[in-house]
Amino acid sequence: MIRVEELSFKYTGAKEYSLKNINLKVKKGEFLGILGASGSGKSTLCLTFNGIIPHSIKGEFNGNVFVQGYNTKEASVAELSKLVGLVLQNPDSQLFNMTVEEEVAFSLENLGLDVEEIRRRVYWSLKITGLEGLENEFPPNLSGGQKQRLVIASVLAMKPQILVLDEPTSQLDPLGREQVLSLITLLNKEQSITIILVEHNTEYLFDFADRLIVLDKGELVMEGKPREVFEEAGFLRNLGIKIPTSVKIGAELKKKGLLERAALNDRELVDAIRTFLKG
Ligand SMILES: Nc1ncnc2c1ncn2[C@@H]1O[C@H](COP(=O)(O)OP(=O)(O)OP(=O)(O)O)[C@@H](O)[C@H]1O
Ligand SMILES: [Mg+2]
């Protein structure tokens, strides 16, 4: 689906490269989580997947990004947007129509689809994001979680196979966050949409991501299954990455020789504690 080869990028006017020699492959249907401290290059990497970098945001771009075989240097952002949907932090900056329905239809109107197909896609997108019944609402009146799901609906209406989400829940309250994260899981597991997610809720990534990559100062410094990555709790903490509470406790217990593995989720940690309380 995505192949990144020796990718380096420096913003115009910046001193340092924001991405350094990144190599990465993302398979069809995979759920990839991106971890890294502030400024490590997570957003910059996300912007290379649909060609915003290098087409709209300029700089020194070396290496290649291929999306479903297209080299992003050669394809346009409009073409790439049909393959890769991008969802950002702040839903307000991505909503500008008068009704929920128009918001979703808007992105489709330039695709040259017939009216029936547009109607079908709007209906499907609103249904899957749980927004049916709100077609005539004014988007600014929605809750934070509904707004972000509306952004996702309007991106999904383009039928992309890949969804890239850059901290989509960071401005939401706990309920909104929960709604958006369950939607992401559903899109990945039931619609087989490839997901690339930047998210600070590492508990969620632990449970649902297939693979994680860790960025540090523009470099890809670690890659693996969540369980492998979180086993290195000390390394992640030194990079300024939030570690699931169960893994923090697990790491302490491992240090004391009470556990063999630190990377446990809540349920596994409770089971482990029960076992040594019994023993
Ligand atoms: N438009 C820009 N012009 C110049 N430098 C930039 C620009 N955008 C980001 N940078 C720099 O690139 C580096 C990576 O930034 P990026 O926004 O990708 O990090 P991030 O991991 O997404 O951080 P955060 O967690 O704060 O969102 C930082 O050093 C940042 O200052
Ligand atoms: Mg960012």
Descriptive report:
This protein is α/β, with parallel strands linked by helices and 279 residues long. The chain has one domain: P-loop containing nucleotide triphosphate hydrolases (Rossmann fold). Helix content is 42%, strand content 22%. The chain contains 12 helices and 10 strands. A 6-stranded mixed β-sheet has the order 6-7-8-3-9-10, with helices on both faces. A 4-stranded antiparallel β-sheet has the order 2-1-4-5, with helices on one face. A hairpin with a 7-residue loop joins strand 1 and strand 2. Helix 4 crosses helix 5 and helix 4 packs parallel to helix 6. The mean pLDDT is 94. Magnesium ion (MG) binds next to helix 1. Pfam families: ABC_tran. Probably part of an ABC transporter complex. Responsible for energy coupling to the transport system. Keywords: ATP-binding, Cell membrane, Membrane, Nucleotide-binding, Translocase, Transport.
Write the layout of secondary structure elements.
Blueprint (H helix, E strand, L loop, with lengths): L1 E10 L7 E8 L4 E6 L5 H8 L2 H4 L3 E9 L2 E2 L5 H7 E4 L12 H10 L5 H14 L15 H13 L5 E5 L7 H18 L2 E5 L3 H7 L2 E6 L2 E6 L1 H6 L1 H6 L6 H11 L10 H13 L1
The chain binds adenosine-5'-triphosphate and magnesium ion (MG).
